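G., the chain you wanted modeled:
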Amino acid sequence: MNCLRDIGLALGTLLSLVATAPSVLAQGSAVQIQDISPRGWVPGQVTRVIVTGAALESARTLWTSLPVTVVRVKGSGDGPGQATFDVTVPRTSVGRGAVRVMADAGLSNVRLVLLDGLPGLAESRVDDDRVLSGPMAVDGILDPASTDQYSIRLNKGQRLTVDAWARRLGSSLDPVIRLADSAGRSLVTVDDSPGLAGDATISLVAPATDLYTVVVTDVSRRGGKEFFYRLRIGHFEPVAMAFPFRVKTGRNNKLQLLGPRVAETLTLASSTPVGTTWVGGPVGPGGGRSLLPVQVVGDDVLVEREPNGLREQAQELPTGGRVSGRFQKPGDQDWYRVSLKKGRKIQVVGNTASIGVAGRLYMRLVDAEGRTMVEVPPSVSTRTTLEHTTGSDRDAWLVVEELQRRGGGSFGYQLECRFVERGFSLSAASERLHGKPGGKVAVKVTASRREFKGAIKLGVEGLGPDVELAGQSIPSGKNETTMTITLPAGRKPGELIGLKVVGRGLLEPPDAGETVIERSSVNYNRGDLGKYEGFISDKKGGLNYAEYDVELPEAGEYLVLLKYAAMAVRVASMKLNGQTVNSAIMTKTTGSWDVKTARWFNEGLVKFPQGKSVLRLEKTGVFSHLATIRIARQAPRAKTPPRSVQASASTLDALRGSLGGMTFVPRELDGTLFLSVGQK
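Predicted structure as tokens:
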């Protein structure tokens, strides 16, 4: 077994360095990594690593998420644009990790590298004939409107696997790889292999002894310094997934390595710490193997168990739980039982590409009679979300399928089931700051509110209780602030500090009362209205209506709230079981027809009977763009005191900017804001 933990960015992590250069009072650092050579480091060896970029003349060391030893050495080309290091990698390590340069002038942006057993070669060192002597990994940069070509001689029956790493390393390159024989005939062309976040891989058996050529290009014919890649060429069997995707620390875990021709089991030791661990597939002749991530967590994990293809075989999916599942064969259908709570919105999120596997999900929720309560429309998304609010406590069944009914060793998923709670999430506009002892740095913090109106008080973890803050509150009705941090005067130049920005607020009982039923426009039951970009539109003539089946646990007066967008007033009416109960609804405007401007409006009280009813919204001619309806009690049954809610600021968007717009930023990098301390 070969595995590597991507060490989390722990709070309070310090690198003590001697700073000699003048400090720069700035919000970020001038230190930049443009490229790292090589992009793969060989386990069990010392690798000479050359970093190119900006403001590197005062580079001291490399910060890495990897358990490696780093020594700063003097390279022949070192200066503002280059720094050189010797990196020693443990013999048993494989996988991907993060790298930054720590210098007197601050901390650099993040780059990603591989720990890879294949011998590496820079594109510039490939012979003019572009023929490779055997299995190896080539580090290259693609020029605009160009192709890169490499050849390798294969014997008849010999397997060749080509694995292009680009998007998975934070490159802007969207690679297409093609394999041709010596006559120029294309054998296979691949773009966007499933589960590889936009990267591509091919694997085939040579039909004849010949010189074969691998051609690399960008799907849009782009290129430049940010269009780098690591092309892994070897004779190994590809492995599509390590299953399950999440395991619990503190015990020996069995992992299944699954691929087109691979079905092996390995054991992940109980001592494996929490974080992202990488495992390697079978080693091929001459080296090379598949590299696969596994999440090690401290809480309980759930794994899909077969048979579960029928409702009576359904596996329980608790709220707050995550389950690793897979489609073992084409047409496979997985059933789960979920417990719904009256008036609470349940959310099930299905992930595929974000965990490195193939497939897209189709999900639906059915009741005890087998009727579909809600379904996720067919989508090309690799992250699928299903939401539903019910009017009573009941069991329902979640049915999960691959959208195109595919299955096999490459097709898996992870489900997250939870109740949606009112509150907020936070994001930081920067993921690294630089300042001097006693100086100030600033970071913009943005809140995304979920029916939370109150003020959000911000704090910083990692600097100690004596930290001074300004702008540490996002007022009620606002969504952002610029927070200023004053560094304690006693901080030493050269320190690297891991911070977390944390927000806290008081959650008041909802003004509109307790939600009993909420339906989005994609879940309407009947009517002549169509679906378009998250709201109900109309036919622009005649009678238009939206009609909903609702079921209430008891009779009484309930608030009806509508979320809609309108640039002009289009008055509609509301009917309950065929009787008009409000002849003037949707009387407000939001400044635009764009659903992004949609707001909630209280349409007053309606007296509902117990049980099932039909609620109808109608207008002759066009009416406002309806997004969601909500039926709520007038007020909570019992007055409850405000409760505290909190969230940590995400740095994903900031990281994504420095990683070429990377779709799936490694989750272990999120949440830590690095602060480097310069000279006074």
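The mean pLDDT is 87.

Shout if anything looks off.
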